UniProtKB/TrEMBL annotation:
Residues 345-365 are annotated as: Disordered. Residues 352-365 have a biased composition (Low complexity). This is Zinc-ribbon domain-containing protein. InterPro entries: UCP012641, Zinc-ribbon_6_bact. Gene3D superfamilies: 3.40.390.70. Signal peptide: none annotated. It comes from the Bacteria. Residues 4-99 form the Zinc-ribbon domain. It comes from Thiosulfativibrio zosterae.
Amino acid sequence: MKRFFCQCGQEVFFNNLYCNQCARDLVYDPSARTLWSGELRKGYQFYAHSNSGKNQYVMKICKNRFKEAACNWVVSSFDEDGSSVCLSCRTTQTEPDLKLRKNKKRVRLLEMAKRRMMAALLDLKLISPMGGDSIKGLKFDFLEDKRSNPKSEIEHVLSGHYQGLITINVAEADEGFLHVMKEQMGEKYRTLLGHFRHEIGHYFWCRLIDIPGRHDAFRQVFGDERADYGEALKKYYDMGLQNRWMSRFITPYAGSHPHEDWAETWAHYLHMVDTLETAVSYGLSVYEPKKNDFDDWFAEWGKVAQVMTALNRSLGLMDPYPFSISEVVKGKLRFIDELVESSGKLPDNFKKTAPTPTAPKPASQ
Ligand SMILES: [Zn+2]
Ligand SMILES: [Zn+2]
Ligand SMILES: [Zn+2]
């Protein structure tokens, strides 16, 4: 993600509600894909000034700013249905019991991760700030099961996607649960953001692949998704890792079924896009994006991943990027990259990373 700065010059972050330095309020504007610093006024109005100070912009903030979601987004000015919540909040269909304190924190973390995932989709032009058809049918159910709340009527919530509805087990927002699941499943990487990026991959499979003329190209790269899904998952959970999975898949789970291979690879693509953009923004990489430069982009990613690993080892922390990408997996990432580039709907040219800001600017960036 690119860097953002308050009008006072202080660096501020994507999910911040206000600047710690000057106390100006901050909002994220999905239409401009930037953070603005300014002032909240009555009636959910937000006032921001242009860099020169000559122009004043008035925006409507998302009502969930004052709820558990602590959402800092504005409601798009193009929004036709007069919604009082933003593009991201509008997709939440079910929340857990908010009378429980732990669920308030979970919802905050879930919505934060969802907004980050959504911002990347906006950057890649996969969704429009207006929402509309670009998020057609997309809904999220945040559910808890008996393991985290004995009063819950659901025995076991499995995160997943079905016809646009994404279910996330809210316990995944608990550090402890996440860690236990990671151990139990023998995974090297498990994060809340990773869940969102994986599940939205299933949603985009329906949008970008499940249309006439696209299936064959997909099957050549990922295999035939018509293989029995239930059988495949059962086999995966019964028998565990496939032999030499690493030469063909990004994770062992990706080897369970072509649908899961797609979602795991898609999530990985979003990890790479966001992290490389962050590295460029902070001057850790000098990569400058060009059109159709997948090989350059991929090579730069390798260097950045190495730096991340070295930094973490210096602090005695686990490797942040426990992946190795084979030629086969690289081909799958290239397939996704080409598909994303050709699917961008908005007019300005798609770029995988924003240019590096040379110095903090006095206004919002
Ligand atoms: Zn400030
Ligand atoms: Zn919102
Ligand atoms: Zn999946």
